[in-house]
Specification:
The complex is a heterodimer of chains A (665) and B (543). Chain A is an alpha+beta fold. Chain A contains ten helices and 37 strands. In chain A, strand 29 and strand 30 form a beta hairpin. The longest helix of chain A has 22 residues. Chain B is elongated. Classes of the chains: A alpha+beta (665), B mainly beta (543).
């Protein structure tokens, strides 16, 4: 018995609810309050970009395919079923489709008039046109949680991640001074009415939580039910009702602190227009939201919550926050919200919001990169800035400058361009450099396993969390011709990493090692033992129907630009082609990965020194994917290399072209 | 009747019957007939015996006429293929059980059988045998091949032999010695022995036997030489050869005299030791009488004008005549000087200048210089003497360009710079146009007060850049920078924050850049300076 008491005590002491969903680690967190129940496939595809979406409770009935699309496109999306907790639109009372959840829920009201809130004259009460208030002190406080649980959540438990209760007010006396909550025919004393109302709402929330211990439950209003719910939606931020920006931020933070963990706060701002181009207001919402850990939402109006407005800022991958917000002038934290410029730092950038009524210039301690956008291009022009002027009631997201290529080899110290598969510049160029290693070393940083593999003229060295764990000479200690490397899960995504080596000069032998430098495969000479120009290597799943990943090789300097695709055992797959004229003798550098983000790994090529830096993208079978382009000036023949890497952390790969040629410009 | 009949039938051979028949009829003298008959049988027996005896004599007392010859090629080359032709000519008697066996010299590696036999060789038949192989032997030595043969003739056995002699004319293991015609006493020189196996098979266990005069002091050789002067070569593949270099000098020679170096190749020297063609190479050893010394700059920079001096001295005790001095300058240009005579102990000096390496020349480990030698006639004895060739080399330091460049497009902020506004600039330190490998490379500059180090830096070689905030010094060091690799250098970002006093002026982004590195070829520590890096435009007033 004592053992059970202890167990129950531990459960009660548990500070948070174990949700079945994971809140996104990456920022910005985005929410969409989308109350149109008829969702087309294209709308569903667009909605999948948001992290959390509030949908009408009938949406699964009206647009079941939308759930499939959204969950497939974004498995981590959080979908909340919207329902009003204490009112009903009158049109719902007239619903005739008996299969509709709307009918099933609200038809209970038609058969039991006592569930409505009335005044002493027996009038239905409302605070919003064309609605009726429901008396939450009645059975409704149980009926609604039961319905939402049984008929909505449990009917489609994989699709719904929680419940969104609209209008969870703490009190009710403000609706009508003759309100009769207890239905005794007499006007209730306001305090009594409010207390009973709150008790009813509290029970409703408690019931909801008890029935849905692992789901997200949030409300829209100031209702103080955070013992049972995860947070709220702040509508029409910053609202003068909440005390403007300062008051809204205080409420925002109050909820973040008070709500059941993990807190979910959607900060919604409305444009009061169908025009999506109020970028300043959108930024004000987004940057203010980013001062906390809530979800930013921007749409038309409080009556029209069904916008699919997507902004350049939404696509920025800020990563995780590094700290809390602080006032740039006073250095005050969120305990002392005051108007001014506020800042929060993230892994990959910073966020600034100017809540004051005057423009502010902020001097930055380092250079930050503006978004290279397509909408408000006067602001988001992609330039690097050391200071920024922020208009009143505006904000800005600045990206940290890219410093390193990840998951693909780079030559330490080279100047790198960040391009799309078609050659469009995506981010500012940068020097890909790790000061821990010598210039010109070949480096592969593998964040997934906290490992860096560094190749010099003879040795390959493996570092784990900065500590050397292995060193080996793949071609013997007397070889000084330079080692090329690729580090990948060669055997498949669930197998260990392999280090595939090639040579920068000399015999063109490919060899395969474990991540600790043990020889796994003695390798092969894909261009024969007579070729002495070295071999460039890359690894990716360029032939998806074959087991494991493939080793893609390109001949080194002096060889023809022949690309060969080898299997994981270093055996030919039969895929071989000349990426450029076969008469070239500059060799060809290869990289591999999904560079056009179509879900399939590609092969990217660029000729070696002596030829113009013309980039091409191929499938694993040698079909050119898109028109090639010159990564640097056509006359620049000093040689370049390519990599496929998600350098900005947005989940999509970029094409990186690297060269020391900048020293010759 | 029957008798007559008999006598008639056999009369042509039984002459006693015929005789008595025609001269003495046997009428009533039948005993005569008996006697004659007996006599006839005796005669017939004797006649038959004679015939038998004659036949026996022919068959068994006259040996069959069998001619066996063996011939060798007219020219025999050691190590080359050779064929011995053997012919067996049978006369008018058929012979049987014929055996022939060739006995060849030990150096004849045959690739065909040496023994043959036939059950029968008919009369008037000629049987030939070609014995092929590769013969190796001592050059100019005579060797003999023998054919031993036997046969039967009606129960009789006969045997005999035939020989052929041949001389080895030459060898396919060719050995040639290259020595100077003249050499000075104590002058170190290198002579070479070239060997070549022109045969189509590999030769193993080859030796080169050197006959080196006692006066020759060996200094070094490309292969080990035994005390007996032998060089062992495990194998010389077909159609290949090699060279043996031997360096040394003659010592203790007095006056002018001749020495002879002998060289001979030895095939299979550890087993058969076939000596091949020997070579005798004479050379004249002279006493030094003319000396040359040189002087000039040992290290220079590309584009420098170089002054060289050549001094030659008669170090002998007699006058030298017709002295001709030749200077061959790197690149092929040649200078000549002649002097009619140079008395014993006399010295003369010549100078010349070179500016052959112009400033646009770019070559790794570049050198220039010259070699000088002279010849003269020794008065009195009329012998031509000479000097060793003396060379002088000038090494060139690496060409080198060091610069610092500001890239505003890789930074941020206003350009031109404005007072009280931050502009970030990417500074490039570039080391270009260097021809030799460099080591211990260091570039260093200080930052002015209004310039801030941001920590964003990258290098093409070596370790990371360092910034010392106490001295405001930026340093890049690399232990080595190879020539002819990609562009070399370092780049870093600084933030410039001009003040209002600097409006209208160009200000320093970095102060003077100091470069130092050791030239790995010349060993010289090279230093270069690049001036301060200034803003490209004057500072603008704040808005």
């Amino acid at each position: 018995m004592k053992r059970y008491c202890l167990f129950i005590s531990l459960l009660l002491l548990s500070p948070s609810v174990g949700l079945a969903v994971n809140l996104p680690d990456a920022y910005p967190r985005l929410g969409n309050y989308f109350l149109d129940p008829d969702i087309s496939d294209s709308e569903a595809t667009e909605l999948a970009q948001w992290d959390i979406v509030v949908l009408g409770l009938e949406t699964h009935y009206t647009s079941p395919q939308a759930f499939e699309i959204m969950k497939a496109a974004n498995p981590d999306i959080i979908l909340l079923a919207y329902v009003t907790s204490e009112e009903v639109p009158e049109k719902h009372l007239e619903e005739t489709d008996t299969n509709s959840p709307i009918y099933k829920l609200y038809n209970q009201l038609n058969s039991n008039d006592d569930l409505f809130l009335k005044n002493t004259s027996g009038d239905y009460l409302n605070f919003y046109p064309d609605t009726r208030l429901i008396n939450v002190t009645t059975e409704w406080k149980k009926l609604l949680p039961k319905f939402m649980t049984k008929q909505i959540i449990q009917a489609d438990p994989k699709d719904w991640d929680g419940i969104f209760y609209d209008n969870c007010f703490n009190d009710i006396s403000w609706v009508d001074d003759q309100v009769d909550v207890n239905q005794d025919g007499e006007a209730d004393f306001w305090k009594t009415a409010d207390a009973q109302w709150k008790t009813g709402m509290t029970k409703m929330m408690k019931q909801t939580r008890q029935r849905n211990p692992n789901k997200v439950i949030i409300c829209n209003s100031n209702g103080d039910f955070y013992t049972y719910i995860n947070g709220r939606l702040i509508e029409a931020f910053p609202s003068s009702f909440d005390g403007g920006w300062v008051g809204s931020m205080e409420k925002y933070y109050d909820v973040l602190e008070a709500a059941t963990n993990p807190s979910v706060v959607i900060v919604n701002t409305v444009a009061n227009s169908a025009d999506a181009s109020n970028y300043q207001l959108m930024r004000y919402n987004l940057t203010s939201t980013l001062m906390g850990d809530g979800f930013a939402s921007f749409d038309q109006s409080v009556d029209q919550h069904h916008a699919l407005w997507w902004y350049d800022e939404y696509s920025v991958a800020l990563g995780a926050p590094l700290n809390g917000p602080y006032n740039v002038s006073s250095n005050a934290g969120p305990d002392d919200w005051s108007k001014g410029v506020w800042r929060r730092n993230f892994d990959r950038g910073i966020v600034l919001v100017n809540s004051s009524s005057e423009d502010k210039r902020v001097i930055l301690e380092d250079g930050f990169e503006k978004i290279l956008g397509t909408q408000d291009t006067d602001l988001n022009d992609g330039t690097v800035v050391g200071s920024v002027k922020i208009p009143a009631h505006d904000g800005i997201i600045l990206q940290g400058r890219i410093a390193q290529v990840v998951d693909d080899p780079y030559i330490n110290g080279t100047f790198a361009k960040v391009l799309s598969a078609r050659g469009k510049q995506l981010r500012s160029s940068f020097f890909t450099y790790n000061s821990a290693y010598n210039g010109s070393d070949t480096v592969v940083q593998v964040p997934e396993i906290d490992t860096e593999v560094v190749a010099g003229s003879t040795y390959v060295t493996v570092y784990k969390n900065g500590t050397q764990v292995a060193q080996f000479a793949p071609y013997g200690t007397s070889f000084t011709g330079g080692v090329n490397i690729a580090v990948e899960r060669l055997e498949g995504d669930h197998k260990g990493y392999r280090i595939v080596t090639g040579t920068q000069s000399g015999g063109a032998q490919v060899r395969i090692f474990s991540s600790r430098g043990q020889l796994v495969n003695t390798g092969c000479f894909p261009y024969g033992t007579d070729f002495r120009g070295g071999v460039n290597v890359a690894v990716a799943d360029v032939l998806p129907n074959k087991a494991g990943k493939e080793i893609v090789v390109g001949a080194g300097q002096g060889g023809g630009p022949q690309v060969l695709v080898l299997n994981k055992h270093c055996k030919p797959t039969g895929q071989s082609w000349f990426a450029y004229s076969s008469s070239l003798r500059t060799g060809v550098w290869v990289a591999a990965g999904d560079v056009n983000n179509d879900g399939k790994d590609d092969i990217v090529t660029i000729p070696g020194a002596g030829s113009a830096p013309y980039v091409r993208v191929f499938t694993g079978r040698g079909h050119e994917q898109s028109p090639g382009f010159y990564a640097f000036s056509k006359s620049n023949t000093s040689g370049a290399q390519v990599a496929v890497s998600d350098v900005d952390g947005d989940g999509d790969n970029e094409l990186i072209v690297m060269s020391f040629a900048i020293f010759n410009e | 009747m029957w008798i007559k009949h008999v006598t008639k039938k056999t009369g042509h051979i039984l002459f006693p019957y015929l005789w008595h028949y025609f001269t003495d009829e046997y009428k009533d003298r039948m005993h005569h007939l008996v006697i004659d008959t007996l006599l006839s049988f005796v005669i017939l027996g004797l006649l038959g015996s004679n015939i038998v005896l004659g036949a026996w004599f022919y068959l068994f007392s006259i040996q069959p006429d069998v001619q066996v010859t063996i011939t060798a090629p007219d020219v025999v080359i050691s190590g080359e293929p050779m064929t011995l032709d053997t012919a067996i000519v049978v006369g008018n008697k058929t012979i049987s059980a014929v055996d022939a066996k060739l006995v060849v010299p030990s150096g004849f590696a045959v690739d065909s059988p040496l023994e043959y036999n036939w059950e029968r060789l008919a009369a008037h038949q000629t049987q030939t045998i070609s014995t092929t192989g590769r013969f190796t032997g001592n050059v100019k030595q005579t060797y003999r091949a023998i054919v031993l043969y036997s046969y039967h003739y009606y129960g009789q056995s006969f045997s005999d032999s035939t020989t052929v002699e041949f001389e080895v004319d030459a060898s396919s293991l060719e050995v040639v010695a290259h020595t100077p015609d003249q050499i000075l006493n104590h002058e170190s020189f290198t002579w070479t022995v070239e060997y070549f196996n022109s045969a189509h098979i590999e030769r193993s266990q080859v030796c080169i036997q050197l006959d080196i005069p006692d006066a020759f002091a060996l200094e070094s050789s490309s292969v080990p030489i035994s005390e007996s002067g032998q060089v062992n070569i495990d194998a010389v593949p077909a159609q290949t050869g090699g060279t043996i270099s031997i360096t040394g000098s003659f010592s203790n020679a007095i006056g002018e005299g001749k020495q002879v170096i002998g060289v001979v190749g030895v095939d299979q020297c550890t087993t058969a030791a076939w000596r091949q063609v020997s070579v005798q190479q004479p050379l004249e050893v002279l006493t030094p009488r003319l000396q040359i010394s040189t002087a000039g700059p040992s290290i220079a920079n590309v584009g420098d004008r170089l002054l060289y001096t050549v001094t030659y001295t008669n170090s002998g005790d007699v006058t030298l005549e017709n002295i001709a001095t030749t200077v061959v300058i790197t690149g092929g240009e040649t200078l000549y000087w002649t002097d009619a005579s140079l008395a014993a102990g006399e010295r003369r000096t010549k100078t010349f200048t070179l500016n052959t390496v112009n400033s646009s020349t770019r070559q790794k480990n570049l050198t220039t210089g010259y070699s000088v030698s002279a010849v003269a006639t020794i008065a009195g004895i009329g012998v031509r003497t000479y000097t060793p060739t003396v060379s002088y080399q000038t090494k060139f330091n690496s060409t080198l360009a060091v610069s610092q460049v500001a890239r505003y497009d890789l930074g941020y902020g206003p350009h031109p710079l404005k007072a009280w506004e931050i502009t970030a600039v990417r500074v490039f330190w570039e080391v270009e146009d260097f021809t030799n490998d460099l080591s211990n490379v260091t570039l260093q500059a200080t930052l002015p007060a209004q310039v801030e180090w941001t920590g964003h830096a990258a290098v093409t070689e070596g370790g990371a850049m360092a910034y010392d905030p106490a001295t405001r010094t930026v340093t890049w060091h690399s232990s080595s920078v190879p020539s002819w690799s990609h562009a070399q250098g370092a780049s870093f970002e600084v933030r410039v924050f001009p003040n209002s006093d600097q409006v209208g002026k160009q200000i320093n982004i970095t102060n003077d850049l100091v470069f130092s590195a050791r030239d790995s070829f010349t060993g010289v520590v090279l230093k270069r300076f690049a001036g301060a890096l200034r803003t490209d435009q004057v500072i603008q007033a704040e808005e």
